[in-house]
Amino acid sequence: MSRVAEILAKKISSKKARIAIIGQGYVGLPLANAFASHGFRVTGIDLDARKISMIQKGVSYIEDISSASLTKLVKQKRLFASCSYEPLRDSDVVIVCVPTPLNRAKDPDISFIVSATEAILQHLHPGQLIILESTTYPGTTEEVILPTLEKSRLKVGHDFFLCFSPERIDPGNPNFHTQNIPKVVGGVTPQCAKLAASLYEKITTSVLKVSSCRTAEMSKLLENTFRIVNIGLINELARAASSLKVNIWEVIEAAKTKPFGFMPFYPGPGIGGHCIGVDPIYLSWKAKISGFDLHFIELARRLNSEMPHHVVSQAVYTLNQYAHKAISRSKVMLLGVSYKKDVSDIRESPALDILQALQGLGAKIAYHDPYVPQIQNDSLSLKSSPLSPKILKEQDLVILTTDHTCFAYRSIVKHAHLIYDTRNALKHFKEPHIMRL
Ligand SMILES: NC(=O)c1ccc[n+]([C@@H]2O[C@H](COP(=O)([O-])OP(=O)(O)OC[C@H]3O[C@@H](n4cnc5c(N)ncnc54)[C@H](O)[C@@H]3O)[C@@H](O)[C@H]2O)c1
């Protein structure tokens, strides 16, 4: 072990290592909160001045993190926040949690990783551990980050340490959080992996070291490819089941009683967020460069992206069949617009596509979502409407798009004339005015 590695290992072990986390979004803020709560001094860095100011005031903007926790950590001088990269100068560990979206051509856009790496290079010094957590294609850490950091003439594995450790957080999940989700770590050298593993062992119950950064990068993509493919499969089966006059939800409940070899996935109005629909594309893009077409990913992507259109056509059919109304003369309200339950994230949410398509067909659209006070984009400008019995009664159709736990389902069923439930949230209600995906 090099002398600098030894010093860094001691700092990690005594929690004296100073940590900087670049990117304070859904991933970075919970991670900063976790390290600071476990006794480290952490600085959250973000280009978004609003987020930085909120952290400094101890105000959380992520549902899973309480303002009380941030306030306590800020007061104890364990959590700091900055819009500048200056704190990297004094940091022993730098963790990168910046976005990895797709560009307009639907190819990976790693520009945020590139700019964060340039910033790290300006402050790179011996004894620093750099960890990338952003989801990305296999090879990013060694092909993009390493050559940039080596411009410093410092040697990886000797002077500084570089790893990839995928973030696996599931916002809104009350059972799993940073501390109890096992961490996977791959290092450019075994020493790199060892140092990163010793760091994560301070905040998580279990850490698995894998043989390379590429393995760690691909393990995250396997997880989300597994999800997109299985969701695509169940969405396709759901559509087939309805024409076979079978209730797909009941089929899944029956199949999942098998104690081995089956894992339930559920149909829905489409996939959203910045993970499941995006991450597998990182894998198929990179595989294509190596001469492989990943057919499963492309098929699943297509099947899932058809779901919002399917919901709209079912809405048109339901109104016609049960209310004898044309969509162009109907009032339609969506319940829940975030891409999944109990979060405020509307990025790539299928509810936005559904609202837009209904609006295009001339329907009078409205939505209610306690997590999303307004929607403002190129084609939609809406405020969340209150959810009173009167407003429910005024709707020709209510589409349940996100199954938030806080919804008063009994009242919704009581007051709405016609409901199309895309999440099986009303499975315990047998009323005839409820249609299901
Ligand atoms: N959200 C999830 O559930 C989740 C789960 C696992 C993995 N991931 C992955 O983690 C990464 C981050 O996702 P997220 O949901 O936290 O994104 P996010 O958009 O919520 O947060 C990213 C933050 O990074 C900041 N940022 C961008 N470029 C920066 C730069 N150069 N310097 C400083 N700050 C910068 C942005 O202002 C933003 O606040 C992505 O790769 C994502 O795929 C996300």
Key features of this structure:
437 residues, alpha/beta, Rossmann fold, N-(1-d-carboxylethyl)-l-norvaline Dehydrogenase, domain 2, 3 domains, eight-stranded mixed sheet, five-stranded parallel sheet, 15 helices, 15 strands, binds nicotinamide-adenine-dinucleotide
Q: How do the strands of the widest beta sheet line up side by side? A: 3-2-1-4-5-6-7-8
Q: Output the helix-strand order.
A: HEHEHHEEHEHEEHEHHHHHEHEEEHEHEE
Q: Treating each run of at least 4 consecutive H or I residues as one helix, how many helices?
A: 15
List the domain count as a whole number. Answer: 3
Ligand types: nicotinamide-adenine-dinucleotide
Query: Strand pairing plus helix content: what structural class?
Result: alpha/beta
Alpha carbon gap, first and last residue: 59 Å
Total DSSP E strands: 15
> Approximately what portion of the residues adopt beta-strand conformation?
5-15%
Q: Regarding CATH, which class of the largest domain?
A: Alpha Beta
**Mean pLDDT over the full residue set:** 96
Multimeric organization: single chain
Q: If you had to describe this structure to a student in words, what would you say it looks like?
A:
44% of the residues are buried. The model has no long low-confidence stretch (mean pLDDT 96). This protein folds into 3 domains: 3-211, NAD(P)-binding Rossmann-like Domain (Rossmann fold), CATH 3.40.50; 221-304, N-(1-d-carboxylethyl)-l-norvaline Dehydrogenase, domain 2 (Orthogonal Bundle); 306-436, NAD(P)-binding Rossmann-like Domain (Rossmann fold, 3-Layer(aba) Sandwich), CATH 3.40.50. The strands form 3 sheets. An 8-stranded mixed β-sheet has the order 3-2-1-4-5-6-7-8, sandwiched between helices. The chain starts with a helix and ends with a strand. With 437 residues, it is of the alpha/beta class. Helices cover 40% and strands 14% of the residues. The radius of gyration is 24 Å and the shape is elongated. Nicotinamide-adenine-dinucleotide binds at residues 22-28, 45-48, 51, 97-100, 112, 115-116, 134-135, 167-169, 171, 274-275.
